[in-house]
């Protein structure tokens, strides 16, 4: 049983089915939709998508490029980074709309033969001999050899397995996201570093890009939906480069096309498993978007867990191997993403910011 039908859960289901396991997937959303704007796909994430067999469809629906450019607020170039492809079969970097990635993964999950149950959640777990008994919100209950909690940052499975663990932590930053048409000449990631605001653009298709704007709110985190276009418009004032062209469209944007939320993180202490249940993805290592690696880490979790469960007759040994391969890698992403956010909030060195980002991205190129 995999609890959660997002990136982590679907990736795990696909790989477990390849290994020959019967897989149920429970998703609380009856419509099984993905919400949000764009998603940057780093080289390591492209490698993971290739492993689960959806890379071709992702590339067809998204965009690819090489490197990023860092600018000051006025738009003057400060530094340029380039990351070579991980292999001859992969682009260097990619981007896609989140709903499109969800559509690709959900179709592949069903094609693989996963039994998907929508509109249900896990209410209780208990040992039952060599299995785990899962009780669902619709009153049903079933026995499973393995329970995988892939139900996100507010994971119900985490609360059942580790009730004493702390809740996600607010980093101090909030983010606006918006999808816009790609201006002429736009062909890679662009960051614009203001004193208190970081703004960036990433391609997500041949015609569109998505914008993110990070800032530290002075007080109340809440912004009414109706007020969000004006607030975003105001915060984009004074930026150069591609920003003015996009800013001109913001006030007329539909409020439902703007995504706003506080940034929260969680890094669960090891181990992420108990008895015959294990957590993956945001349920145990939710991060911020600073390294564009949250989805990549979730996909990798599914790949590695399937490999270790397949290669071990003892589930406990499989879990230990999974932790040995995943914990430090995921910790690097969470902790370095938080550090990048702190540099931004404290008006730290942008060169240090770029150095830290480059070192982390280089480390993530290593095999999983």
Q: How is this structure best described in words?
A:
This protein has 368 residues and is an alpha/beta fold. 36% of the residues lie in helices and 27% in strands. The strands form four sheets. The protein has a seven-stranded mixed sheet with strand order 6-5-14-15-16-13-17, with helices on both faces. A six-stranded mixed sheet has the order 8-2-1-12-19-18. It has a three-stranded antiparallel sheet with strand order 3-7-4. A hairpin with a 4-residue loop joins strand 5 and strand 6. Helix 1 packs parallel to helix 4 and helix 10 runs antiparallel to helix 11. The longest helix has 31 residues. The mean pLDDT is 94.
Concise overview:
This protein is 36% helix and 27% strand.
């Amino acid at each position: 049983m995999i609890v959660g039908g997002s990136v982590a859960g679907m990736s795990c289901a696909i790989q477990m089915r390849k290994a020959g396991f019967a897989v149920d997937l429970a998703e609380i959303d009856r419509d099984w939709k993905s919400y949000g704007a764009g998603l940057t796909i780093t080289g390591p994430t492209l490698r993971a998508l290739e492993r689960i067999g959806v890379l071709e469809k992702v590339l067809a629906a998204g965009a690819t490029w090489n490197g990023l450019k860092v600018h000051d607020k006025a738009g003057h170039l400060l530094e340029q980074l380039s990351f070579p492809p991980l292999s001859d079969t992969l682009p260097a970097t990619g981007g896609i709309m989140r709903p499109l990635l969800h559509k690709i993964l959900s179709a592949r999950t069903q094609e693989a033969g996963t039994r998907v149950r929508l509109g249900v959640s896990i209410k209780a777990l208990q040992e039952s001999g060599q299995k785990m008994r899962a009780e669902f919100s619709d009153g049903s209950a079933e026995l499973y050899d393995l329970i995988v909690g892939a139900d996100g940052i507010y994971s119900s499975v985490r609360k059942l397995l580790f009730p004493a663990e702390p809740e996600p932590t607010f980093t101090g930053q909030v983010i606006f996201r918006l999808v816009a048409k790609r201006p002429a000449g736009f062909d890679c990631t662009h960051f614009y570093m203001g004193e208190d605001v970081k703004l960036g653009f990433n391609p997500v298709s041949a015609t569109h890009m998505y914008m993110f704007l990070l800032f530290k709110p002075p007080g109340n985190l809440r912004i009414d939906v109706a007020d969000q276009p004006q607030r975003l418009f105001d915060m984009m004032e004074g930026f150069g480069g591609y920003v003015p062209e996009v800013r001109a469209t913001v006030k007329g944007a539909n409020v439902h096309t703007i995504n706003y939320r506080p940034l929260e993180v969680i890094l669960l202490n090891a181990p992420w498993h108990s008895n015959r249940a294990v957590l993956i993805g945001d349920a145990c290592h939710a991060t911020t978007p600073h390294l564009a690696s949250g989805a990549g880490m979730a996909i990798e979790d599914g790949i590695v867990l399937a490999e270790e469960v397949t290669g071990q007759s003892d589930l406990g040994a499989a879990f230990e191997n999974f932790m040995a391969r995943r914990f430090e890698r995921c910790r690097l992403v969470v902790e370095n993403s938080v550090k990048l956010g702190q540099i931004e909030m404290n008006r730290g060195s942008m060169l240090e910011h770029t150095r830290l980002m480059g070192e982390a991205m280089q480390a993530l190129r290593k095999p999983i």
